[in-house]
Design a protein that fits this description.
The protein is an alpha+beta fold and 187 residues long. It contains 7 helices and 5 strands, in the order H-H-H-E-E-H-E-H-E-H-E-H. It has a 5-stranded mixed beta sheet with strand order 3-1-2-4-5, with helices on both faces. Strand 1 (67-78) and strand 2 (84-94) form a beta hairpin. The longest helix is centred in the C-terminal third of the chain and has 16 residues, at 119-134.
Length: 187
């Protein structure tokens, strides 16, 4: 599949198709700014989750409790309307001898959020990447987001949140561990 670049001229054409004058002072620089913004908003395609999760074993072999980072900001765009969705994620795991720096969990969420997404797929992608790379005993991910495609068009339901979760490894059969993770994830 060849990749055809979307240029500033294409953004100018979009503005014209909306009935705007792309040369008026308030819009003259908009095509450049929008092109730059979309490059940032979709930069997750250029990131390798495996590289983000380089693990280390120093000090981790003794630790056998949940590690949870919550309130990780999520900013993404739905693949159906290119509309933003945003909220927070909680990511946790039960190590099996390997840990990652805590900021790596935030970077992992950001990597998958900076792609055109559906929240359900993004949630499982985060969980699977953590499970594949760290090989922990368990992984839990909870994502809570507001979707502008629902709030600003169609059904128009401001303030509704969509919550998705992925529970892998021991979080599936172990009700006590699952309950502990969900309690830690709760606001």
């Amino acid at each position: 599949m060849s990749k055809e670049a979307f240029t500033e001229q294409d953004w100018r054409r979009l503005l014209s198709s909306l009935g705007e004058d792309p040369d008026r002072p308030g819009l003259a620089e908009t095509p450049h700014r929008v092109a730059k913004a979309w490059k940032h908003w979709t930069s997750g395609y250029e990131q390798d989750p495996v590289e983000l999760l380089k693990a280390f074993e120093d000090g981790a072999e003794q630790y056998n409790e949940l590690i949870v980072v919550k309130n990780i900001p999520v900013y993404s765009h739905c693949e159906h309307h290119l509309a933003p969705f945003f909220g927070k994620a909680t990511v946790g795991y039960l190590p099996n001898g390997k840990i990652v720096g805590l900021s790596k969990l935030t970077r992992l969420v950001d990597c998958f959020a900076k792609r055109l997404q559906v929240q359900e797929r993004m949630t499982i992608q985060i969980a699977n990447a953590l499970m594949d790379v760290l090989e922990p005993k368990a992984v839990g991910v909870v994502v809570k987001c507001r979707h502008m495609c629902m709030e600003s068009r169609g059904i128009r339901t401001p303030g509704e949140e969509t919550i998705t979760s992925a529970m892998l490894g021991e979080l599936q059969p172990n009700l006590a561990l699952r309950t502990e993770f969900l309690a830690l994830a709760r606001d």
